[in-house]
Specification:
The protein is mostly helical. It has a domain of about 100 residues. About 70% of the residues lie in helices and about 0% in strands. It has a two-stranded parallel sheet.
């Protein structure tokens, strides 16, 4: 076991072990607690590498027991400082690790506050809300912080700003409209649906997000019709250009 843990390159090692039994199938080695220190020493190699903290956050959140997380943070208390919290937190490995650490009371107060500030910023400026429907992320907020964020969302994401946001998405699609409108606007549609779900307890605000999503759906349907028509015109033009060349080629062969 020691030869394997010491001799395997750290990147492949992350895909082949779990630190403690976390219920994953197909694992080459479940590392027991008396070897946690050895694994921690190997993981240190990643912290200073480009993309290393993100890769390490993914490993810690998916393949490590609470006991190992505690062991790792005792050895590397500054590691959390290296994690970057970026937009679209629903898919963020770093944000996921914050949620797990908070759930097990391993997230320092300063880091909890850093998460709250970042989440508030992205909710209002990206804007995004689906990550706030996750219980593990939501639990990081204190009740007063959540109330404050909800109030800020109601003020900032009003009907006028929602229309501007939809137009921004459309302007980006207009620049390179090779992608199916359904796929391109899916993310913004999901965010509007999440906002509607969040404010179901407030009829007026709830309707604001329902209407914004309906307007988006109508716009997407129109874009789809125009997009399919454009593709049909391009196909017809392409066939028209190819036909004379193909006839000329066969005429030459017949001769």
């Amino acid at each position: 076991m020691d030869i394997f843990l010491r001799g395997t390159r750290v990147e492949p090692l992350l895909n082949e072990i779990t630190c403690g039994d976390v219920g994953l199938e197909g694992v080459k080695l479940v590392v027991p607690p008396d070897r946690f220190g050895l694994v921690v020493s190997r993981l240190k190699e990643l912290i200073s590498e480009p993309g290393g903290p993100k890769r390490l956050a993914s490993f810690l959140s998916a393949r490590c027991s609470v006991d190992f997380l505690r062991c790792f943070l005792e050895a590397e208390p500054a590691f959390i400082d290296t994690l970057k919290l970026g937009a679209w937190m629903l898919w963020s490995e770093e944000a996921k690790l914050f949620g797990i650490l908070h759930q097990h009371r391993l997230l320092p107060k300063t880091q909890r506050r850093r998460f709250v500030v970042a989440a508030r910023n992205f909710a209002l400026k990206t804007p995004e809300w689906r990550f706030m429907l996750r219980p593990d992320f939501r639990s990081i907020f204190r009740p007063s912080e959540l109330r404050s964020l909800r109030a800020a969302v109601v003020r900032k994401l009003d009907s006028a700003n929602l229309k501007r946001e939809t137009q921004w998405w459309k302007s980006r699609w207009d620049q390179d409209n090779d992608e199916d409108p359904d796929g391109y606007f899916w993310l913004w549609e999901q965010e509007l649906e999440a906002l509607a779900r969040e404010f179901e307890d407030n009829r007026r605000v709830h309707r604001r997000y329902v209407v914004a999503r309906s307007q988006l759906e109508r716009m997407v349907e129109k874009l789809k019709r125009d997009w399919k028509k454009k593709d049909g015109d391009l196909d017809a033009a392409s066939e028209s250009q190819e036909s004379p060349t193909q006839r000329s080629l066969f005429d030459d062969v017949d001769e």
